[in-house]
Amino acid sequence: MITKLKELIEAKKTEVRMPESEKQDRLSKVSELSVEVTQFNATERPFYNAYWDHEEEGIYVDIISGKPLFSSKDKFDAGCGWPSFTKPIEATEVSYEKDFSHFMERVEVRGAYSDAHLGHVFDDGIEPTGLRYCINSAAIKFIPKEQMKALGYEAYMYLFED
């Protein structure tokens, strides 16, 4: 595992977690696939998911907590069939765990507040980070740029200023 990925895992932060009652309430409002992915570390099918080839401007939020995770400005086509990003909007909104499932050593990406499984991060991405955050569409929700202000994400409009 390369140094960048080791640093992500070792950079443990004090995390405030979503109250279990709130989490259960929100889980009752998402699809069965979203529950399987976020709570039981499932993986959706590549190329058969909502955002793998999505190109609209906006942000992607944690489907459970609503916390902003990724920007369309950092999204790229990695050819893997899942949405891929170079970095999270705010490093504190994701957490990392070692994952040894499926006879591999990987770095799992989780929502820091919701503790939802989002996907994995790999060291084969593009610049500026060289990382590829490979994220399940079922773990995120897209907020179009035009709706961000109305939906309470006005603070993130700076991402789209040139």
Compact description:
With 162 residues, the chain is α+β, with helices and mostly antiparallel strands. 15% of the residues lie in helices and 25% in strands.
3D architecture notes:
The protein has helices at about 5-10, 20-25, 30-40; strands spanning about 60, 70, 75, 85, 95-100, 105-110, 115-120, 130-135, 140-145. The protein has about 160 residues and is of the alpha+beta class. The protein has one domain (about 5-160): Metal Binding Protein, Guanine Nucleotide Exchange Factor, Chain A (Beta Complex). The strands form 2 sheets. The protein has a 6-stranded antiparallel β-sheet. The model has no long low-confidence stretch (mean pLDDT about 95).
Topology diagram in text:
Blueprint: H1 3-10, H2 20-27, H3 32-40, E1 58-62, E2 68-71, E3 75-76, E4 84-85, E5 94-99, E6 106-111, E7 117-122, E8 132-135, E9 140-144
Antiparallel strand pairs: 1-2, 1-9, 3-4, 4-8, 5-6, 6-7, 7-8
- What is the level-2 CATH architecture name? Beta Complex
Relevant CATH superfamily: Peptide methionine sulfoxide reductase
The largest β sheet comes out as: 6 strands, antiparallel
Write down how many β-strands occur, each being a DSSP E stretch of 2 or more residues: 9
How many discrete structural domains? 1
Low-confidence stretches: none
Mean pLDDT, to the nearest integer, reads: 93
Coarse morphology: globular
Count of DSSP helices?
Answer: 3
Distance between termini?
A: 35 Å
Structural class: alpha+beta
The CATH class label is: Mainly Beta
**Beta-strand percentage range:** 15-25%
| Strand order in the largest sheet | 3-4-8-7-6-5
Overall radius of gyration? 15 Å
- Can you tell me the CATH topology? Metal Binding Protein, Guanine Nucleotide Exchange Factor, Chain A
Helix content: 10-25%
Helix-strand pattern, N to C? HHHEEEEEEEEE
